[in-house]
Every structure is written in C-alpha cells, then in structure tokens.
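From: lab user (bench 3)
To: helpdesk
Subject: output format question, protein + adenosine-5'-triphosphate

Hello, I'm new to running complex predictions and I'm not sure whether the block I got back is the full result or only part of it. Here's what I submitted:
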Amino acid sequence: MIALDAVSREFQVGSQWVHALREVSLGIDAGDYVSIMGPSGSGKSTLLNILGVLDRPDSGSYRFEGVEVTALDDAGQTRLRRERIGFVFQAFHLVPRLTAADNVALPLLLAGVPADERAERVATALDAVGLTQRADHRPDQLSGGQRQRVAIARATIMRPGLLLADEPTGNLDRHSGGEVVELLEGLLDQGIALVVVTHDPELGQRAQRHLRMVDGVLEAEA
Ligand SMILES: Nc1ncnc2c1ncn2[C@@H]1O[C@H](COP(=O)(O)OP(=O)(O)OP(=O)(O)O)[C@@H](O)[C@H]1O
Ligand SMILES: [Mg+2]
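Helpdesk reply: Thanks, we reran it on our side. This is the complete output you should expect:
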C-alpha cells in the first residue's frame, strides 16, 4: 500500500544542515501495525510528516496506493492527505472554538459532504469513541482522553487507509492512554494501516512491527 524508497530530508538552520532522514526505505501494507521508537531528534516526527504528506522529501520516492506522491502538485497532495490519511497528535490539535461534533465534521465539510450525511456520520463516529454525550462540548470542556478520542474520530471520519499517530498517549494518564490505544488498535480490523511513534516501550511492543529510528536512519526491525 505504501512504499518509501531512499527518502531523505534535510533542514538548514543558519549555516548548519540537519539530516533528519537519511535514505529511509519502508513498506507498509493495509492492516499493518507499526511502531517507531528512537531517541529525541532522531527523525521520527519528520518521517511521520512525510508519510502524512504534511512535508515533502528532498529526495527519494514515496508511493501511496500506486500513486507517486512526490509527483503530485499541492492540490493533489492536499486531496490525498484529506481523503486517505488520518493524523493523531500528542497535543490533540482540535479547533478550540468548535464543539466536538464540529471538529469531527471538519474533514467532511472540506470534502463537500452534504449536511444531513455529515450529521449522521459524525454521530456514528462520536458513538464509536464513546462521546455521544459530549458532542456539544468544546475541547476546553473535555478531558485529555476525551480530546484525543475526538481527534481519533476526526482522523478516521474520511475512512482513511493510513492512520499516523505521533505520541498519541504522551499527554494522557495511563487509563486514558489505554482507552486511546484500544480505539486505535480497533481500527486495524477495518484494514487501516496504523503507524505509531512513541517513547513508551510498552505501547511500542504492542505493534506487530517494531522500527527504530537513530540519527535519521531507520534501523532493521527487532
Ligand atoms: N522544520 C524544521 N527545521 C529545522 N530543523 C528541523 C525541523 N524539523 C525537525 N528538525 C530537526 O530534525 C531532526 C529530527 O526532528 P524530529 O522532530 O523528526 O525528531 P523526533 O524523533 O520526532 O524527536 P522527538 O522524540 O523529540 O519528538 C532534529 O534534529 C530537529 O531539530
Ligand atoms: Mg517527534
């Protein structure tokens, strides 16, 4: 489903170059459960951003469901990202002034889905994450775990093929974190590919495939 081939990404800060990714190659199939661990600054988020088409590689190839992503223009990349990829971040990244329901509805709105279908799909998605009773709450009226569950509902409302999670439990207590992990893992049954970046060895071990990033290099699976 996904193939990265020799993807590199460098950042220039002043006169200094940072090699965030060094010729990273990786294949991911539908239904795969992949964890990526490694030291701070090793390139994990950079890799996730490229997989999520939030950032472009400087060199190398990225194929997603048969399409060469690097050859798409901005509009094509935006469309692919919105329709096929979900993102869950450590800091939730919900829109503060919108209710839970409106946050979840946002991708549908951008995709031009009619209001009645939107309402129906949002209700189903909130139900799936156990937040029907919190539909009208704004993010500041929700707990951290609830916020992340809203973020998961939003990330999956377009039925993406790939779900990327960058430290999804990093801001949560153990109990809420466990609930979030269960929700994410439940998506695997639907054939979604799940890639989780984490510093938590226990979470990392739950995946079927364990990758390790060190200084921009993706190391062989342990
Ligand atoms: N936009 C940017 N501009 C300049 N340098 C960047 C940028 N993004 C990342 N870097 C650098 O690239 C390297 C990899 O960063 P990245 O955020 O991918 O690390 P990480 O593995 O996710 O770390 P952490 O575990 O702390 O989240 C770091 O050295 C970082 O300073
Ligand atoms: Mg990071």
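A quick orientation on your result: Residues 115-128 form the longest helix (14 residues). Let us know if anything else is unclear.
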